């Protein structure tokens, strides 16, 4: 069972997704990730998307550490149920509705968000390892229109996976490896002439 590491809801036990359909981010990777994100200044008061959320552990961690709002996007019914339970726990602990859950495909969510004109400060992506590189590239392209200037995108993949094909409008600025897990960090850039 996972837990929230730090912040207002630090130590809170989280509901995990039953079965082995998801791959939870380890506490070691989560701690390193959030320490880095705090130095980037995207957590405090930021708007956070947790795509392919699984149990929602990353999104609720962001809310516990000061994000203004976090949206957990997940399609699998058991994972959605875990996200809803964890969002409820954190919202009660925070005393406000900081975390919301959206059931559906990530691509459909991003297409709908692009039409709203709203931007996001932090996007956490932990797609299933079987998701192919071409499908991931399409999702990353759909992500570009919903990023605020100064946003950070974090993509978690297997260390055996190749570097993602970053679309125009986004550039990788860091990569960190933790055993079997690689975190890719990217940010939006203005298109060149």
Account of the protein in words:
By secondary structure, the protein is an alpha/beta fold. The chain has one domain: Vaccinia Virus protein VP39 (Rossmann fold). Helix content is 32%, strand content 26%. The protein has 5 helices and 7 strands, in the order H-E-H-E-H-E-H-E-H-E-E-E. It has a 7-stranded mixed beta sheet, with helices on one face. Strand 6 and strand 7 form a beta hairpin. Helix 2 packs parallel to helix 3 and helix 4 (106-116) packs parallel to helix 5 (133-143). The mean pLDDT is 92. This is 16S rRNA (Guanine(966)-N(2))-methyltransferase RsmD. Pfam families: Cons_hypoth95 (PF03602). Keywords: Methyltransferase, Transferase. It comes from Arthrobacter halodurans.
Write a short abstract of this structure.
By secondary structure, the chain is α/β, with parallel strands linked by helices. The chain is built from five helices and seven strands, in the order αβαβαβαβαβββ.
Which structural traits does this protein have?
transferase, 7-stranded mixed sheet, EC 2.1.1.171, single chain, 193 residues, methyltransferase, Rossmann fold, RNA_MeTrfase_RsmD
Explain the layout of strands and helices:
Blueprint lengths: L26 H14 L6 E5 L5 H8 L4 E6 L2 H18 L4 E5 L2 H11 L3 E6 L7 H11 L3 E12 L11 E9 L2 E8 L5
Parallel strand pairs: 1-2, 1-4, 2-3, 4-5
Antiparallel strand pairs: 5-7, 6-7
Helix pairs in contact: 2-3, 4-5
């Amino acid at each position: 069972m996972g837990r929230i590491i730090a912040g207002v809801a630090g130590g809170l036990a989280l509901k995990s997704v039953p079965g082995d359909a998801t791959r939870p981010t380890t506490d070691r990777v989560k701690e390193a990730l959030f320490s880095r994100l705090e130095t980037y200044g995207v957590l405090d008061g930021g708007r956070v998307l947790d795509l392919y959320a699984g149990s929602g552990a990353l999104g609720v961690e962001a809310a516990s550490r000061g994000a203004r709002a976090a949206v957990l996007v997940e399609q699998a019914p058991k994972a959605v149920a875990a996200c809803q339970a964890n969002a409820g726990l954190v919202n009660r602990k925070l005393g406000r509705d900081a975390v919301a859950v959206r059931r559906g495909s990530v691509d459909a969510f991003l297409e709908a968000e692009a039409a709203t004109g709203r931007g996001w400060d932090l996007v956490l992506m932990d797609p299933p390892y079987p998701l192919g590189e071409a499908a991931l590239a399409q999702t990353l392209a759909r992500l570009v229109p919903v990023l605020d200037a100064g946003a950070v995108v974090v993509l978690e993949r297997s260390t055996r996976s190749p570097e993602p094909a970053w679309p125009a409008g986004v550039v990788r600025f860091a990569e960190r490896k933790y055993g079997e897990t690689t975190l890719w960090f990217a940010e939006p850039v203005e298109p060149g002439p």
